[in-house]
From TrEMBL:
It comes from Gossypium aridum (American cotton). This is Protein-S-isoprenylcysteine O-methyltransferase. GO terms for biological process: phosphatidylcholine biosynthetic process. It is found in: Endomembrane system. The chain crosses the membrane at residues 20-40, 60-78, 90-107, 144-171.
Length: 193
């Protein structure tokens, strides 16, 4: 991890070392914060929660989203130039900044959500601080930013547009379902937010 990053920062990282950095960041971003805040790193069992807050679109819609994201990533791999032709070093500073912003946004939004929720999934108040001050759904936004960063790192603009479109369609539906439940639970305070 750090050794590969040091080599990358001076422009001497091989393809395998660059992939190790990107894979490590994506794995950390997608696995550790949710696992920590749902109690999997504290014990072997998930924390109990109210199933009322398990808001999901229909299964076919979720499956379509997963297939769309997977297809978008594969399209990016085919659209992108060969990996050894993508320059390393300081030319990727923008990509690294996006990765750091994505990590911070995901982590902070999960932290603020945990502060105003009981066991993360049962909200006790409308969260209006941290990243929620600027973005209504920062967890979804950081996931889209993660996918966008992948496409940007591969220099695949058409795949970027495809993946963002798939995410916007899915997260718009999911957010609408959640917002109905939030209005039902918190009423005027959520509408003001």
């Amino acid at each position: 991890g750090l050794y590969c990053f040091r080599k990358h920062s001076i422009g001497e990282a091989s393809i395998v070392e660059q992939l190790a950095i990107v894979t490590s960041v994506f794995a950390w971003l997608t696995l550790v914060p949710p696992a920590y805040f749902n109690g999997y790193l504290e014990d072997y069992y998930a924390r109990p929660h109210d199933p009322k807050w398990d808001v999901n679109p229909p299964k076919w819609y979720r499956l379509l989203f997963c297939v769309g994201v997977m297809v978008g990533h594969w399209l990016a791999a085919f659209e992108a130039p060969e990996l050894h032709r993508i320059p390393g070093g300081w030319s990727n500073v923008g990509v690294w900044i996006l990765i750091v912003v994505t990590l911070l946004m995901q982590y902070n939004s999960t932290l603020y959500l945990a502060k105003y929720s009981e066991k993360v999934v049962v909200p006790t108040a409308v969260v209006q601080f941290g990243p929620y001050r600027w973005v209504r759904h920062p967890v979804y936004a950081s996931t889209m930013l993660l996918f966008a960063t992948y496409c940007l790192a591969l220099r695949a603009p058409l795949s970027l547009m495809f993946v963002v479109a798939v995410c916007l369609m899915y997260y718009e539906q999911k957010a609408k379902l959640e917002e109905v439940l939030m209005v039902e639970t918190f009423g005027e305070s959520y509408l003001e937010y």
